[in-house]
Amino acid sequence: MNAAIGDLPLERSIVLVGLMGSGKSVIGRRLAARIGMKFVDADSEIEEAAGLAINDIFEVHGEQAFRDGERRVIARLLTEPAHVLATGGGAFMNPQTRKCVKELAISIWLRADFDVLLRRVSRRDNRPLLKVENKEEVLRGLIEERYPTYGEADIIVQSQDGPHEETVSEVIAALKQFLENESADGDAAPPRQATP
Ligand code: S3P
User: Fold this and answer.
1) Strand (E) positions, 87-158?
2) Which of 1, 13, 18, 40 satisfies CB 3.0 to 4.6 Å to 22 for a cystine?
3) pTM of this structure
C-alpha cells in the first residue's frame, strides 16, 4: 500500500501512544483505513506470540515478562513495512521502545481527560493494572507518572469524547501539519535505520 496524506507520502509507521482508554485501537483502526495503511495492535501481537491473553501473561509470568515481550514485539513490528501501530499504555514508558519509535516512526499521543478514560476503562475487565478496588486512584497515578513521557511524542491530539471519526480527522490534520513542517525544514526523513 502506498499511504499518503494529500501529496505527502507516508513512509514511516504511525505509532499511537497513550493511557488505557484513550482510544488507540479504535482510532488507529479507522486512521489506518483512511490513510491506506495496515493496522496492527501491539497487544494482540503480544498475545499471539505468547499464546496467552494479557491477563494470563500477567498472572502466570508476571508484569516484567509482559514488558520484556512488549519491548521485543514492538521492536520487531517497527522493522516491518510502514503501518499504523496501536501500543499498550505502558509501551512508550520503556526507554528502548521510545528510542526505537523516535528513530523509525512518527508517534502520536492520544491525550484524554480523566473522566473520559475512567468511563471507557470501566466498561471492560481486561486490564490487569485496573483489577483493583480503586480504579480512579490507579488512573490518576498513571496520569501523573506517564503524561510527561507521553508528551515526548511527535504529535499530541486530544482524544474527543464525540464521534471517533472526528478524532481521526484531527489526527490526520495534525499528521499533515507535521509532515509539512518536516518537509519545510528540509529534513523530511526517508525511512530511517535503527541505531544498534
Ligand atoms: C497497559 C495497557 C494495556 C496492556 C496492559 C498494560 C498499561 O493496553 O498493554 O494491560 O501498562 O497501561 P491498553 O492501553 O491498550 O489498554
Assistant:
1) 105-111, 155-158
2) 18
3) 0.93
The confidence band for 193, taking pLDDT boundaries of 50, 70 and 90, is low
Task: Dig out the grid coordinates for 92 from the structure.
Answer: 512508550
Residues 6+ apart with CB under 8 A from 101: 15, 17, 74, 78, 92, 107
Counting from 1 in the atom list of ligand 1, the atom nearest the Cα of 22 is: 14
Is the CB of 18 inside a 6 Å radius of any atom of ligand 1?
A: no
171 phi-psi bin (left φ>0, alpha ψ -120 to 50, beta other) = alpha
> Does the beta carbon of 41 sit less than 6 angstroms from any atom of ligand 1?
no
CA distances, 10 to each of 3, 84, 135, 154, 180 (Å): 5, 11, 38, 15, 12
Residue 75 in this model has a pLDDT that exceeds 70: yes
Nearest CA owner, ligand 1 atom 12? 89
Pairwise CA distance, residues 65 & 5, whole Å: 38
Cα gap 110→106, rounded to integer Å: 13
Distance 127 CA to ligand 1 centre (A): 6
* Mean predicted lDDT score pLDDT of the chain: 93
Expressed in angstroms and rounded, the spacing between residue 43 Cα and the centre of ligand 1 is 8
Q: Which numbered atom of ligand 1 lies nearest the CA of 128? A: 10
Q: Which helix (H) or strand (E) holds 118?
A: helix 114-121
* Ligand 1 atom nearest to CA at 126: 10
